[in-house]
UniProtKB/TrEMBL annotation, chain A:
Record InterPro entries: AAA+_ATPase, ABC_transporter-like_ATP-bd, ABC_transporter-like_CS, ABC_transporter_ATP-bind, P-loop_NTPase
PANTHER family found in the cross-reference section: ALIPHATIC SULFONATES IMPORT ATP-BINDING PROTEIN SSUB, TAURINE IMPORT ATP-BINDING PROTEIN-RELATED
UniProt keyword Transport, yes or no: yes
PROSITE patterns with a match to the protein in the record: ABC_TRANSPORTER_1, ABC_TRANSPORTER_2
Sample GO molecular function, one term: ATP hydrolysis activity
Record family assignment: Belongs to the ABC transporter superfamily.
Domain ABC transporter as annotated: residue spans: 25-257
This protein's UniProt keywords: ATP-binding, Nucleotide-binding, Transport
Superkingdom of this protein's organism: Bacteria
Protein name: ABC transporter ATP-binding protein
Automatic annotation (TrEMBL), chain B:
Pfam families tied to this protein: BPD_transp_1 (PF00528)
Transmembrane parts of this sequence: 65-90, 102-121, 127-146, 167-197, 223-244
Main location: membrane
Entry membrane topology: Multi-pass membrane protein
Family the UniProt entry places it in: Belongs to the binding-protein-dependent transport system permease family.
InterPro entries linked: MetI-like, MetI-like_sf
GO cellular component, one term: plasma membrane
Species of provenance: Teichococcus wenyumeiae
Xref: Gene3D superfamilies: MetI-like
Annotated compartments: Cell membrane
Keywords, sorted A to Z: Cell membrane, Membrane, Transmembrane, Transmembrane helix, Transport
Descriptive protein name: ABC transporter permease
GO BP, sorted A to Z: transmembrane transport
Length: 276, 262
């Protein structure tokens, strides 16, 4: 990228009505080729996705398979070289926080803002009245279990708490879809499991469509309604697995044969690619 | 361990002791005749001169402060503003940065005679000179600071559909504040230097002028009284920067380094 000042233009902004189909995400014929210093790389190929509203879909694959790039394209941050992405029936040409909330891998909070101010930030860009902003941010922080931490700065919060704030920020405009790019990758294992449970609880309470990218097989099997397994570069979808584990998911399920079989099936795909 | 083994001098205590020692030597050495009073008048004599001519010093100090205030506003305002803009647009930065860095090495004081010819020997020429003198470090420092901003901050802003202006004022500017402050520390100090030096060269007013005039009159206590005021000015400026740094302490913790601490 040549400039830090690249901001999306506002011309194609779509007012998405919160119809039942608002959380419907569709990807058609998506492929991506990029040219880095003269070396042409095929990153993604023939991606087709149909994600029904309210579903929890996990995209899993080895590092470098393009799963994060695919997610960034679905958020509208990156344009694919071919194919189309729609959310709620409208194309995702540019980021639209009213339709898609995004949570990034790195704790991407602004260190000069408190937790409350970080969650308010998207609303303040829209110039919402202060009182409404504050009320909505407080309500979202409470949803992610951070009541009483409103005035803490990011450096005063633990890694897990920071990601909770990120989730609250992603949800503050009440988008029908939440997309998370390896949100818990930097956390220790205990925190990771707790955060998974937290996310499931939030998902059940809000009924959002959740698209979650991870390289962790356990995380994928534990969280998902449906697992999308991607191959190594060029990233293709090699399997779609309906997870039939009952909800609510519990820690004990991880040691059941069903869970093991799920992991085994995903691992089979990933191991095959590693051998190539 | 014995209790006295635990006795350690705090760095702050050492600093104070050193300062006290300097002041003490300043008084004792000339009084003892080890340094001629013309070269270094005793501290009490210097302070005496300062008190005795308090009105005159106050007048010239205010004059210098006025020039410093304006020059600092111009230098930091333009320097930081332009640094933010140029620093965030790569092609512009790549063409401007080498030129600005090269220019920084030029001793701008060689231009001062020119400025007196253009703007007269009043405050204008000093303000222009000191503004220019402080502008470059502000500009260069801010430009460098913008480049070190975590890319995630920008990606987040884009995912939230921030406009260009919002990205600049709500993300790039606050994210650059730690570097901007260190640029301000250097640029602001140079503004003070610029004003005082300019006053010493050609002027009829200001603290630098007082120092030069009394030097030609061989009135050492009054020269040192002026120097004391300049030192006080710099200490005051440093305290201001420290205050700003304390108020923006949260900025300096990047979210990742905090993880390492926790």
């Amino acid at each position: 990228m040549t400039t830090l000042l690249q901001a999306p233009d506002r011309a194609d902004r779509a007012a998405a009505p919160q119809t039942p189909a608002a959380g419907h995400v569709q990807v058609r014929g998506l492929g991506h080729t990029y040219d880095a210093a003269g070396r042409v790389t095929r990153a993604l190929d023939g991606i087709e996705l149909d994600i029904a509203p309210g579903r929890f879909v996990v995209i899993v694959g080895t590092s470098g398979c393009g799963k994060s790039s695919l997610l960034m394209m679905m958020t509208g941050l990156v344009s694919p070289s071919e194919g189309s992405i729609t959310c709620g029936g409208m194309p995702m040409m540019a980021p639209d926080p009213d339709r898609v909330g995004v949570v990034f891998q790195e704790a991407s909070l602004y260190p000069w803002l408190t937790a409350q101010q970080n969650v308010e930030f998207p609303l303040s860009l829209r110039k919402l009245p202060k009182a409404e902003r504050a009320a909505r941010a407080r309500e979202r922080l409470a949803l992610v279990g951070l009541q009483g931490f409103e005035d803490r700065y990011p450096h005063e919060l633990s890694g897990g708490m920071k990601q909770r704030v990120s989730i609250a920020r992603g949800l503050v405009q009440d988008p029908p879809v939440l997309m998370l790019d390896e949100p818990f990758a930097a956390l220790d294992e205990q925190t990771r499991i707790t955060m998974g449970d937290e996310l499931l609880r939030i998902w059940e309470r809000t009924g959002k469509t959740v698209i979650f990218v991870t390289h962790s097989l356990t995380e994928a099997a534990y969280l998902a309604d449906e697992i999308i397994v991607m191959s190594a570069r060029p990233g293709r979808i090699v399997d779609r697995i309906e997870v039939d584990l009952p909800r609510p998911r519990t820690y004990a399920m991880m040691s059941t044969p069903r869970f093991a079989a799920l992991r085994e099936r995903i691992w089979g795909h990933i191991r095959n690619q590693a051998g190539e | 361990m014995a209790p006295q083994a635990r006795f350690r001098l705090e760095p702050a205590t050492v600093r104070r002791l050193l300062g006290l020692a300097v002041l003490l030597l300043w008084e004792v050495l000339p009084r003892a005749g080890l340094i001629p009073a013309l070269f270094l008048p005793p501290l009490t004599e210097t302070l005496g001169a300062l008190v005795h001519h308090a009105g005159e010093y106050a007048h010239h100090l205010l004059f210098s402060l006025y020039a410093i205030g304006i020059a600092m506003g111009v230098a930091c305002g333009i320097g930081i503003g332009a640094g933010l803009l140029v620093g965030s647009v790569a092609p512009l930065r790549q063409s401007v940065q080498p030129v600005a860095s090269g220019l920084y090495a030029v001793p701008l004081v060689i231009l001062y005679p020119l400025f007196t010819a253009w703007f007269g020997i009043g405050p204008q020429s000093k303000i222009v000179f000191a503004s220019l003198y402080g502008l470059l470090p502000c500009f260069l420092g801010t430009m460098a600071g913008v480049q070190t901003i975590d890319r995630h901050y920008i990606t987040v802003a884009r995912s939230l559909r921030a406009s260009r202006l919002q990205l600049l004022t709500r993300v790039l500017l606050p994210a650059a504040i730690p570097t901007v402050l260190s640029a301000f520390r250097i640029g602001g100090a140079l503004v003070i230097v610029g004003i005082v030096v300019a006053e010493m060269l050609t002027s009829t007013e200001g603290i630098g002028y007082l120092i030069t005039r009394n030097r030609t009159l061989l009135n050492s206590p009054r020269v040192f009284a002026g120097i004391l005021l300049v030192v006080a000015l710099v200490i005051g400026f440093d305290a201001l920067v420290r205050l700003l740094e304390r108020r923006t302490r949260h900025w300096r913790f990047s979210t990742r380094s905090a993880d390492a601490v926790a």
